[in-house]
Automatic annotation (TrEMBL):
InterPro entries: Homeodomain-like_sf (IPR009057), HTH_AraC (IPR018060), HTH_AraC-typ_CS (IPR018062), Tscrpt_reg_AraC-type_HTH (IPR020449). This is HTH araC/xylS-type domain-containing protein. The keyword Hydrolase does not apply. Keywords: DNA-binding, Membrane, Transcription, Transcription regulation, Transmembrane, Transmembrane helix. The keyword S-adenosyl-L-methionine does not apply. The lineage of its organism: Bacteria, Pseudomonadati, Pseudomonadota, Gammaproteobacteria, Alteromonadales. PROSITE patterns: HTH_ARAC_FAMILY_1, HTH_ARAC_FAMILY_2.
């Protein structure tokens, strides 16, 4: 078997996770297309990283695997971008014709692979496996020119992959930043929807991309970097495990709103596209017919829902829920909050929660976690963040300061 059993075992374990996760994602994708890009992303990573297993188990397919690795490499970043786009979409995501432009580089890589498959096997083996270019020099002129053309095209594609990966990583970061802002317009609690794990994964994958890109370029121009293959295989295993685990668990951030029907006298909440500038409120509400008097009346209804009905105690409170409660259009509520009150839904609700928490901290001996849960927060970290934002103190500091003031009196 392999003279590097640890490397072989890690590679097999990684491929098993990819196969299992891809199968699960494909099953889910029948009803939700958002899972297709992640399934394709995992399969592409599997093709790129299966070489150690291919060499040991089916060496006759080594050339085949190496040729397919180019289009697979060019598929990874676009698929991760489309998956991110699907998770952050305000309506159920579906693959559109305009999304196909993201697959053009991979299609070009597929064309290179198709031409390569048409070449005699001995030349492919000499170029890709044994690296004996002297065999190519003895080939007929047409075949020799095709091989050199393919090598140049493949090298340029690898350089393009470096730029492609950097560009998509940037697009994902920007998309997530805008998405988190949009969450605060709709939900009072967002920490379970913010996709923080995707940021950490991007950092890890970014490091792997940089290393792989530098190594590929140096391998084609000079000589590859010498590194511990087992350590690299372990890193790939951790990345794939994390991507598969969170990918299978994660639902689109706005999923709970997808099938919700608005109440009879309201309209469904109309989102602003994440591709538009979300801070331009005039553009956002330019089609609205909401008058100043109407906005003032809505503001009173919202305040009543919070003060008298204590709607903020609902940890799953969302803008459509509030709209149904006060029988008002979600769009009008959003406009009233942003334009009349100058606050996002998220901050508006959490301010009431913090005020209620202050009373608990002053009058009871409840723990910080108990207070957080009692006033509508669903995590201690979210409570600390909101409390600090509205009072400039942590809950513990506020409690100590109040007790100290009470003792002096």
């Amino acid at each position: 078997m392999s003279d590097q059993p640890i490397l072989f075992s890690l590679n097999i374990a990684t491929l098993c996770i990819i196969l299992f996760s891809t199968h699960q994602l494909v099953l889910r994708a029948h009803g939700k297309q958002v899972y297709w890009p992640l399934a394709l992303c995992l399969m592409s990573i599997g093709v790129v990283n299966c070489m150690p297993s291919i060499q040991q188990l089916v060496p006759q397919f080594q050339v085949f695997s190496l040729i397919l690795s180019l289009p697979a490499l060019l598929l990874i970043a676009p698929c991760l971008w489309l998956y991110t786009k699907g998770l952050t979409n305000q309506v159920p995501w579906q693959l559109e014709l305009r999304d196909s432009r993201h697959l053009v580089p991979a299609a070009f890589g597929g064309f290179i692979a198709l031409v390569a498959f048409c070449l005699p096997t001995q030349y492919l083996h000499a170029v890709l496996v044994t690296e004996e270019l002297s065999v190519v020099e003895k080939a007929p002129n047409l075949i020799r020119n095709i091989i050199y053309g393919l090598l140049i095209s493949a090298f340029l594609s690898v350089l393009g992959w470096v730029l492609q990966s950097t560009w998509y990583a940037y697009k994902i970061v920007v998309r997530l930043r805008i998405y988190r802002t949009q969450l605060q317009d709709v939900f009072a609690s967002t920490e379970q929807k913010e996709l923080r794990w995707l940021n950490w994964l991007l950092i890890i994958v970014g490091g792997a991309w940089v290393f792989t890109a530098v190594n590929l370029v140096l391998d084609n121009l000079f000589s590859p970097i010498h590194y511990d293959a087992q350590l690299y295989a372990l890193m790939v295993f951790v990345v794939i495990y994390s991507l598969a685990l969170w990918g299978l668990r994660q639902k689109p951030g706005f999923a709970e709103l997808y099938g919700s029907a608005p109440c009879a006298d309201t309209n469904a909440f109309e989102f602003v596209s994440v591709n538009e500038a979300t801070d331009n409120k005039e553009q956002k509400y330019q089609r609205s017919a909401l008058s100043t008097n109407q906005a003032a009346n809505i503001a009173k209804k919202i305040a009543q829902a919070m003060k008298e009905d204590q709607l903020y105690l609902d940890a799953a409170l969302s803008l459509p829920k509030l709209a149904a409660h006060i029988h008002t259009s979600p769009n009008y509520i959003s406009q009233t909050l942003n334009e009349t009150l100058g606050v996002r839904f998220f901050d508006f609700v959490n301010k009431y929660r913090v005020i209620a928490a202050q009373e608990y901290l002053q009058t009871t001996d409840k723990t910080i976690l108990d207070v957080a849960m009692a006033v509508g927060f669903n995590s201690k970290s979210a409570f600390y963040t909101a409390f600090k934002k509205h009072t400039d103190l942590t809950p513990s500091q506020y409690k100590k300061r109040h007790h100290a003031a009470s003792t002096k009196v």
